[in-house]
From TrEMBL:
The keyword Hydrolase does not apply. InterPro entries: DOCK (IPR026791), DOCK_C_lobe_C (IPR043162), DOCKER_dom (IPR027357), DOCKER_Lobe_B (IPR046770), DOCKER_Lobe_C (IPR046773). Belongs to the DOCK family. This is DOCK4 protein.
Length: 260
């Protein structure tokens, strides 16, 4: 099919490279394109056969199932990847001058949503894309989404740890470590410099609510981390006590940089 787009469900645990190889074996004359950018007209008009393959993220329809407490994780993970019509991929790019010290200031995201003719998985493992929508997310919107996702991930891991659904606590340890480490090494300060300074607030009067939302999410993250560390302390094995203590110490540094 010429100049058509499909979303295809790979085999279980199949890596993108393996899927690409499988497709290229099926289309031996195809030229693989190594990027996810929209191809230009010359490619669309070309006599040669091109294949562009990249990963997309499912957008679940049943948000209320995913957000409701008390629903088992295995049911949630089923809805995350089944009965899906819409998929998306993001392409980060810099607009204007890129600040060497603080990349958050100019980091935009071009988000493409692909809408299928039918939901996956179906009779077939792949369906055609009926419509694509492209929106640009500003650096501030991008920051809000990153924090929302991270807070959600932390909450889920803490709950799994509390309800003993976790065989080992490594995922929680790694997540706490990643968030606290990033915050102490300038993450929080970078957001503050980018969006909370007078200059930004004056130049973007329309962003008042979003700035308030970002601040709220940062404070919320501190509360989640505090709770997460308390849960972690109860279950942390002896050999990881030093790391736990380091996390607690770093967390206090983070709190003071937030002005809490």
């Amino acid at each position: 099919a010429q100049n058509k787009e499909f979303v295809c469900r790979g085999h279980d645990y199949e890596r993108l490279e393996a899927f690409q190889q499988r497709m290229l074996n099926e289309f031996p004359h195809a030229i693989a394109m190594q990027h996810a950018n929209q191809p230009d007209e010359t490619i669309f008009q070309a006599e040669a056969q091109y294949l562009q393959i990249y990963a997309v993220t499912p957008i679940p329809d049943n948000q209320e199932v995913l957000q409701r407490d008390g629903i088992p994780d295995n049911i949630k993970s089923f809805y995350k990847v089944n009965h899906i019509w819409r998929f998306r991929y993001d392409r980060p790019f810099h607009k204007g001058t890129k600040d060497k010290e603080n990349e958050f200031k100019s980091l935009w995201v071009e988000r493409t949503t692909l809408i299928l003719v039918q939901s996956l998985p179906g009779i077939s493992r792949w369906f055609e894309v009926e419509k694509r929508e492209v929106v640009e997310m500003s650096p501030l919107e991008n920051a809000i989404e990153v924090l929302e996702n991270k807070n959600q991930q932390l909450r889920t891991l803490i709950t799994q740890c509390q309800t003993r659904q976790m065989q080992n606590i490594n995922p929680l340890t790694m997540c706490l470590n990643g968030v606290i480490d990033a915050a102490v090494n300038g993450g929080v300060a970078r957001y503050q410099e980018a969006f909370f300074i007078k200059e930004y607030i004056l130049n973007h009067p329309e962003d008042g609510e979003k700035i308030a939302r970002l601040r709220e999410l940062m404070l919320e993250q501190a509360q989640i981390l505090e709770f997460g560390l308390a849960v972690h302390e109860k279950v942390v094995p002896q050999d990881m006590r030093p790391l736990h203590k380091k996390l607690v110490d770093q967390f206090f540094v983070m709190k003071s940089s937030l002005g809490i």
